[in-house]
Design a protein that fits this description.
465 residues; Aminopeptidase; Aminopeptidase i, Domain 2; nine-stranded mixed β-sheet; 23 strands; 31% helix; globular
């Protein structure tokens, strides 16, 4: 092989090119990538809702020796704690040895809610030999994608006596599944002439739950009564109990390897559990001199609102309580803190190349992806991280051997989106977005690379070091 020319050497020295993680990984690291993905797939199958993701995280934290924290508890270096907010979000944290007023906290913020179809409060009705539940979709979905696929029903019901029962039907072998009807193409000419947003209307997303009449000729709405009778036998429910229920229809698919080479994972809920799982496991797996918090929150898909979304004061209160317990001034702690807002980004898809600007798009398998800014068009609604903080994170990743890349969410005028980053930055905490590229984001079945998943985990470990 001939020696490289001076220009070739200079080009290697000065040029930037994204690296495919699979190409650069050793055989040992490839095995680590694939092994880590197995734990993630188990998490996805166990955590179809934010409540289930919270429960999974708490169980994993307890297994790793973490104990529950309540406001006012004393803390010391080395403590391993978790804090649960209303059963829908959880913060898992380690107390480090460094002075929090000088070092701050290291925060990793992800969300554990995902787009879905929620059941309305007065949902049950019978029509034309079928029984349905009326719904109201949650988050940004393409409504037509949710028809004609198997669905599972998850959630909780608070009965009129105050007892709370858990519902999960459609996941186990032998379970029935549920269904949203679509129109056959033979009669769909008018439907198909409309825009994609109008092919299926929100009020047509009715979940089919029954078709067997109750065996009594004297009653009306026999199929509805039979469904109610089954719900009563199984959960102690009557129809009024839907008023105090939180039930969701989610895809009944399991997480599966995709492709002959098994390099990819298809599943429901990659957004954003593909970031939440590495955040959780990084804090559980690795001690740190810093005080580190993995914040797994709810409601990001609808603006981070409410008592369990990132805009809730409870997370700021928690950080203040930890600061007080360590004898630190919270304002100083905030100013010294650093955050990775870990949410997914769009992976470049050659099938839809027209909406991407390829040079600044995330490429599948090229590692976790930093987005200096998100937002829409003129960066509206974005935290735009400083060059200084981006440079600091770059060095962390270089020191930690992390394969990573940068991107923005499509062409400038094509659309956009936001994350929880701005809410943490508003607390005077240096924050930048970091997450896994996703194909078919917000679809009932999304796609990610195992390499990017593991790169995200390694990035968090480097950030904690």
């Amino acid at each position: 092989m001939s020696e490289k020319s001076k220009g070739q050497l200079k080009q290697e020295e000065l040029s930037y090119k994204k690296k495919n993680y699979f190409e650069t990984a050793s055989d040992k690291e490839r095995k680590e990538i694939f092994d880590y993905a197995e734990g993630y797939k188990a998490f996805l199958d166990a955590a179809k809702t934010e409540r289930e993701a919270c429960d999974f995280s708490v169980a994993a934290a307890k297994k790793a020796g973490f104990t529950e924290y309540r406001f006012g508890d004393k803390l010391k270096a080395g403590d391993k704690k978790y804090f649960v907010n209303r059963g829908k979000s959880v913060v898992v944290f380690r107390v480090g040895t460094k002075n929090p007023e000088e070092d701050g906290f290291r925060l990793i913020a992800s969300h554990i809610d995902a787009p879905r179809v929620d059941i309305k409060q007065n949902p049950l009705y019978e029509d034309s030999g079928m029984c349905f539940l009326k719904t109201h979709y949650y988050g940004g979905i393409k409504k037509y994608q949710w028809t004609a696929i198997p669905l599972a029903l998850h959630g909780v019901v608070v009965l009129k006596d105050g007892k709370k029962v858990t519902v999960s039907v459609g996941e186990k072998p032998g379970d029935p599944v549920f269904y949203i009807n679509d129109l056959l193409p033979h009669l769909g000419a008018d439907q198909m002439s409309g825009t994609a947003g109008k092919v299926i209307e929100g009020e047509q997303l009715n979940v089919l739950v029954g078709g067997l009449p109750y065996n009594d000729k004297e009653v009306s709405d026999k199929i509805k009564l039979n469904v109610l009778s089954l719900l009563n036998e199984t959960y102690g429910m009557c129809e009024e109990d839907f008023l105090s229920a939180e039930l969701s229809a989610v895809p009944a698919f399991s997480a599966r390897d995709v492709g002959f080479d098994r390099a990819l994972i298809g599943a429901y809920g990659h957004d954003d559990r593909v970031c939440a799982y590495p955040a959780l496991t990084a804090v559980l797996d690795r001690e740190s001199e810093h005080t580190v918090l993995a914040m797994l929150v709810d409601k990001e898909e609808i603006g981070s609102e409410g008592t369990t979304g990132m805009q809730c004061k409870v997370y700021e209160d928690l950080m203040e309580e930890i600061s007080l317990a360590l004898g630190a001034n919270f304002r100083k702690v905030r100013a010294a803190s650093k955050c990775l807002s870990s949410d997914v980004t769009a992976a470049y898809d050659p099938n839809f190349a027209g909406v991407f600007e390829k040079m600044n798009s995330a490429m599948l398998s090229c590692g976790t992806c930093m987005s200096k800014f998100t937002g829409s068009r003129g960066k509206s609604g974005s935290n735009d991280a400083s060059a200084e903080f981006v440079g600091e994170v770059r060095k962390m990743f270089a020191d930690g051997g992390v394969v990573w890349q940068t991107s923005e969410l499509g062409k400038v005028d094509a659309g956009g989106g936001g994350t929880v980053a701005k809410f943490l930055a508003n607390l005077n905490i240096d924050t930048v977005d970091l997450g896994v590229p996703v194909i078919s984001m917000h679809a009932p079945y999304e796609l990610i690379s195992k390499a990017d998943l593991y790169s995200n985990y390694k990035a968090f470990l480097a950030f904690m070091k």
